[in-house]
């Protein structure tokens, strides 16, 4: 008997469920995997040799494809990962052969305030501790590969500064004339460490490096993480890593990892990481965990490889996109689907009464502080006003030509009148609506959601991209701003305009998608603006270029690639039972 989520923490529920979970050998047998295709990491986690599997099943038709997205969340989150697990479990209860795909959590939010993104209550991905603390080492491999590029770059800068051309030639080095004011990469670490955002390196003698400004970003913002998310195979990954731009020379020409002769070694760190990780829901359905980019500062999707496996091995495959439909779904729609060729049958938009109240005028929740009493009292007016945000996201999904399903993730404080208000307004906007109690009841609580998704998948779609890659960069940015965010237009800093002019003359631009960087806490670029604001303009302050991943990255608003750790981080409550070795307190 599963523990009661109203009385037990998520880690306690996961720990109890792990006493009954299937081994990876059972999961592999149920998936139809052959022995040599499974690469176990212990008894309950494994990697899957995707290349062998896909070659064997390449002629098998794809299953139904469902993306899970959300409304603009409160700072507490609205249970999108929980809903993803709940939907997988609900479809399982309907005797569907179903597989899920979610992202690997970063150590930054896991040890800070957001948690590990394993789901919650009776809808979780287990085993929880390996999932939350490094899994099979993919993020560690990304950090090593990325930081190796920084080692190659900074050592070359030092050598070029210390030696003349003749001395460089003796060391079999060609002068690259690196402009130290135009270095594109930072170092990465998988924690939220605001003290490392800006640093000075190379302090000391000439043997200690070249002194210059540098800094750290969080690991999941690395271009290599984006490459892991979109790469189709090892050959594609190697080519993409070789195209990464690390700096520019003094004439303004890009310097790549290939120029630094480090791309091959970087790929060597990634040969195991390219294989997806196999785990399971609390109820035993298979889940692929692969890649972990945030959606506000990166592409925000689990890997194309994981989806290809799920679609070939299951009749239904449920994947998750980060944050709201303005961010994660937009990138799923215009980036992931474009690169993979895999088109969805339905999209689930997760909402809560709590979020509708927040968007309707209730005080904004603050993580780590008690929830304002207003959230426990009925207020249909706030809910109706906040539903403007939900309808905005429904319309975004409809613009992609995809059937939207609204999932009301049910909390015990929700009232019938509040739920009816959401249902009425969402259905009027053209969405199917399902109330789901998966957090409390697992798959049994998600049957209404599962039925709505099955029905949506059986209806025809009219999928279309928002923009053509042939469109100028400013046109793409302005389409996203107006059609997805609801902005009146776009303003650019002089720095952004200069970079756009350069990119417009770059022949590679027509092969690259547009990956926006924007706050997840508002449809706008101002995290304090809730609901569906009108009469505002998006401000683009900078443009980054990820040539390996195939992205142009416009930066909107004041958002950091290295988050900060709060005054009350989660690591204060994580500990180890020294008698059993079990970790407690992870959520």
From TrEMBL:
InterPro entries: Formate_THF_ligase, Formate_THF_ligase_CS, P-loop_NTPase
Molecular function per GO: ATP binding; formate-tetrahydrofolate ligase activity
EC number: 6.3.4.3
Listed GO biological process terms: tetrahydrofolate interconversion
Catalysed transformations (reactions): (6S)-5,6,7,8-tetrahydrofolate + formate + ATP = (6R)-10-formyltetrahydrofolate + ADP + phosphate
Positions bound to ATP: 74-81
Pfam annotation, one family: FTHFS
Enzyme class: ligase
Pathway(s) served: One-carbon metabolism; tetrahydrofolate interconversion
Protein name: Formate--tetrahydrofolate ligase
Keywords, ordered alphabetically: ATP-binding, Ligase, Nucleotide-binding, One-carbon metabolism
Membership in a protein family: Belongs to the formate--tetrahydrofolate ligase family.
């Amino acid at each position: 008997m599963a523990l009661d989520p109203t009385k037990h923490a998520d880690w306690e529920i996961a720990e109890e469920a792990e006493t009954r979970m299937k081994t990876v050998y059972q999961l592999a047998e149920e998936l139809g995997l052959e022995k040599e295709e499974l690469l176990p990491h212990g008894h309950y986690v494994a990697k899957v040799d995707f290349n062998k599997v896909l070659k064997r099943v390449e002629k098998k038709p794809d299953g139904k494809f469902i993306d899970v997205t959300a409304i603009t969340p409160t700072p507490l989150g609205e249970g999108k990962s929980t809903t993803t697990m709940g939907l997988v479990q609900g479809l399982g209860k309907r005797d569907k052969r179903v597989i899920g795909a979610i992202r690997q959590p970063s150590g930054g939010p896991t040890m800070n305030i957001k948690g590990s993104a394993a789901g919650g209550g009776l809808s979780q991905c287990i085993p929880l501790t390996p999932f939350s603390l490094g899994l099979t080492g993919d993020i560690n491999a990304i950090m090593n590969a990325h930081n190796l590029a920084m080692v190659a770059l900074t050592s070359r800068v030092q050598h070029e500064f210390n030696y003349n051309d003749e001395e460089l030639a003796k060391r079999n080095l060609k002068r690259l004339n690196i402009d130290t004011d135009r270095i594109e990469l930072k170092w990465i670490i998988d924690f939220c460490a605001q003290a490392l955002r800006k640093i000075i390196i190379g302090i000391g003698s000439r043997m200690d490096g070249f002194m210059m400004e540098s800094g750290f970003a969080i690991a999941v913002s690395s271009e290599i993480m984006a490459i892991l998310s979109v790469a189709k195979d090892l050959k594609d990954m190697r080519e993409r890593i070789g195209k990464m731009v690390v700096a520019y020379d003094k004439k303004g020409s890009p310097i790549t990892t290939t120029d630094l002769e480090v791309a091959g070694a970087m790929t060597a760190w990634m040969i195991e990481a390219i294989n997806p990780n196999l785990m399971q829901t609390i109820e035993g359905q298979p889940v692929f965990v692969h890649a972990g980019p945030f959606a506000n500062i990166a592409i925000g999707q689990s890997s194309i490889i994981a989806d290809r496996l799920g679609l070939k091995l299951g009749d239904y495959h449920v994947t998750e996109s980060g944050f709201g439909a303005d961010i994660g779904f937009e990138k799923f729609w215009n980036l992931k689907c474009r690169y993979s060729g895999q088109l969805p049958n339905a999209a689930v938009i997760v909402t809560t009464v709590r979020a509708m109240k927040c968007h309707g005028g209730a005080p904004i929740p603050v993580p780590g502080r008690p929830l304002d009493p207003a959230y426990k009292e009925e207020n249909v007016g706030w809910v109706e006003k906040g539903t403007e945000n939900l309808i905005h996201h429904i319309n975004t999904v409809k613009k992609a030509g995809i059937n939207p399903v609204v999932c009301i993730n049910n909390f015990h404080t929700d009232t019938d009148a509040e739920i009816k208000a959401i249902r009425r307004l969402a259905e009027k906007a053209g969405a199917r609506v399902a109330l789901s109690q998966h957090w409390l009841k697992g798959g049994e609580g998600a049957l209404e959601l599962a039925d709505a998704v099955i029905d949506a998948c059986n209806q025809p779609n009219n999928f279309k991209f928002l923009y053509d890659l042939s469109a100028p960069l400013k046109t793409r940015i302005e389409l996203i701003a107006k059609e997805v965010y609801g902005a009146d237009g776009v303003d650019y800093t002089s720095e952004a305009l200069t970079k756009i002019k350069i990119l417009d003359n770059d022949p590679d631009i027509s092969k690259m998608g547009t990956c926006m960087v924007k706050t997840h806490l508002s449809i706008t670029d101002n995290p304090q603006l809730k609901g569906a604001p009108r009469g505002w303009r998006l401000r683009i302050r900078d443009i980054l270029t990820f040539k390996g991943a195939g992205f142009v990255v416009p930066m909107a608003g004041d958002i950091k690639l290295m988050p900060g750790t709060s005054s009350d981080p989660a690591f204060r409550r994580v500990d180890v039972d020294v008698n059993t070795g079990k970790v407690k307190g992870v959520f």
